[in-house]
Amino acid sequence: MRSYLSDRMGAALLMAPLLLFLVVAYAWPFLGVVKWSFTLPTPGLGQYEALLTDDLVQSVFIRTLRIAAVVTVVSVAAAYAITVVWVRGTPAQRLIAEFCILVPFWISVLTRAFGWVALLSNRGLINTWLQAIGFTSEPLALVRNEFGVIVGMTHFLIPFAVFPLASAMRSLDDRVLLAARGLGSSRMRTFWTVFVPMTRSGIIGAAMIVFVFSLGFFVTPAILGGGRSVMIAELIYLRIFQSPDWGLGAAISVVLVLFVGALMALLFRYVRPKQLI
Amino acid sequence: MQQPGRAAEIKAIGIGKSFGSFRALDNLSLDIGRGEFLTLLGPSGSGKTTFLMILAGFVQPTEGKLFSDGVDITDRPAEQRAAGMVFQGYALFPHMSVEANIAFPLKVRKKSAADIKRRVGEMIERVGLKGHEKKLPAQLSGGQQQRVALARALVFEPGVLLLDEPFSALDKGLRGQMQAEMKRLHQETGTTFVFVTHDQSEALALSSRVAIFNHGKLLQVGAPDEVYDRPDNRFVAEFLGEINMLPLKGVRPSGNGSTGLCEDRTISMGCKAELVRGDAILAIRPEYMSISGEAADGENGIAATATNSTYLGAATRLDLTTRQGAKVTVSVPNEVAAAALSKGNSVWLTWPAEKGFLLPRGGQ
Ligand SMILES: Nc1ncnc2c1ncn2[C@@H]1O[C@H](COP(=O)(O)OP(=O)(O)O)[C@@H](O)[C@H]1O
Ligand SMILES: [Mg+2]
């Protein structure tokens, strides 16, 4: 009992600096933001009312949700394919998959966004090629719109979807797959009716992580959206640093944080935190 | 393995399997008869699972050929062989209900919904899972999961049912019950059963024939009483149960059997001294030996002193030492053991000639 207590004390002491840091760096400033949302420019619920009536704010909210949803579906599907190769491929395939998963972590988000601009812009690599082989006569609009934002965000988020999927696939008992085949099921059928359903917790975890991350994206949409596909984080930035309308910016932030918090709560109801790493 | 509803006859010829430089199976030939209950018995790591996986088509042998009803199936993939298989640890689909698990092989075969419903219902009844249809595997006990695995493997009427240590995770009482049920299922379905275990009493109790494995080699195949009473070698003799071994000299044929000298007494054996001559080992199961005050002329017997006894309830296990120091264990009625111990001096160990068999000295 005593050692149990002292273990707990030890753990608490070890975690204390981190907790202190989180309180000082996030919780305390956030309380300030909450206060602004109720007091600026005048005390009251005015900012939240504006939130509900402002067409721009609402269209940005809807666009953010739409982009996040598309990015989630595409990222999780792509990550699923990569993870299958990474976890179940031949040693050579595993190595290549691992390389593809890890390399993006070494390149900054800014570099990657500009890389996509170089690829997708009107005089970028892809459009030049397409015109060179005579596939198109006009450049396709691949960037400075939602498409570009979705491409850039998906690319950034795929590796984050890989880890929960890999942990679900690794914990799967191979014999269950053998059993399915032994009972006459083809590889394809076994994949769809046994393998995919058995990795459900990983799919939910990956989707939640990607969705939550997508909601707060700033750099990628700002660069690849070219000001025409503003997402919620950029809108907050604009309200605080350019308009300036601190109260509204603060109110949007509060709503975003509450929404993400609710999603996280939902996530932890379905999957244990351990499965996410 | 191809026609549903008909038991398969399987022939393995010269099957070998290497994992890198490790030899998991070596030159294994075995005929499995139509509708028989064959048990693969051997210690852990002897290659039983590997052989079963080769039969099922999950593992490709390095050498050898496999025939089912005379057709070469060596290269046929598992899903086309469709042997019923019960895995170690059951391998049920955790996301499917009991019903859906059992229906799976029928759905794969595109049976009509009505047909599936009827056959799954029958199977659930047969393995005693009524009332559990909608449950998930995780909501069932070990024994119930075992039944689901059996039902799922039998519902599509495979030509052969392969079972890999299906009862190793069950407690003893449940084990006996499941063994009886398996025997019943074998009789009802008439399918060929290939059953893997490392438990010799389970093997002897269930099977029509037992195949004994060690270090990737098939050592002996035969009916339970055959391998128990006339093992080919020391490993089989020891693996199937307790055995007493006495050194024997001057072994030679005599009449229908053979004779030899054990501690200066002439001993006769029912078996022929074909392979073993001169020095040998005489092996006798403890339950075939008895204790008496003296051995009559011409009766097999040697003198020994009781050293220790263990009360087992129905009988007593008695440890004895012969004059030349060989250790012998017998299982005798409680009062006989008491008498032998109280005497303190030597008693006679006797046994019928046909119950002793010869093993080569030294080697295996
Ligand atoms: N895929 C494999 N790779 C390497 N060695 C294996 C593999 N499968 C089995 N073995 C080895 O082959 C031997 C026989 O294994 P197995 O057939 O599982 O034995 P049993 O079922 O009799 O316990 C063991 O030593 C095991 O380590
Ligand atoms: Mg095994």
TrEMBL record, chain A:
GO cellular component: plasma membrane
Membrane topology: Multi-pass membrane protein
One record GO biological process: transmembrane transport
Alphabetical UniProt keywords: Cell membrane, Membrane, Transmembrane, Transmembrane helix, Transport
Domain ABC transmembrane type-1: 61-267
PANTHER family: ABC TRANSPORTER PERMEASE PROTEIN (PTHR42929:SF5), INNER MEMBRANE ABC TRANSPORTER PERMEASE PROTEIN YDCU-RELATED-RELATED (PTHR42929)
Family, as annotated: Belongs to the binding-protein-dependent transport system permease family. CysTW subfamily.
Protein name per UniProt: Putative spermidine/putrescine transport system permease protein
Organism encoding this protein: Rhizobium loti (Mesorhizobium loti)
Automatic annotation (TrEMBL), chain B:
Species of the source: Rhizobium loti (Mesorhizobium loti)
GO biological process assignments: quaternary ammonium group transport
Keywords: ATP-binding, Nucleotide-binding, Transport
Classification via InterPro entries: AAA+_ATPase (IPR003593), ABC_SmlMolc_Importer (IPR050093), ABC_transporter-like_ATP-bd (IPR003439), ABC_transporter-like_CS (IPR017871), Mo/tungstate-bd_C_term_dom (IPR008995), P-loop_NTPase (IPR027417), Transp-assoc_OB_typ2 (IPR013611)
Domain ABC transporter: 10-240
Name of the protein in question: Putative spermidine/putrescine transport system ATP-binding protein
A Pfam family assignment: TOBE_2
Lineage summary: Bacteria, Pseudomonadati, Pseudomonadota, Alphaproteobacteria, Hyphomicrobiales
Family note: Belongs to the ABC transporter superfamily.
Superkingdom field: Bacteria
This protein's GO CC annotations: ATP-binding cassette (ABC) transporter complex
GO function terms (MF aspect): ATP binding; ATP hydrolysis activity; transmembrane transporter activity
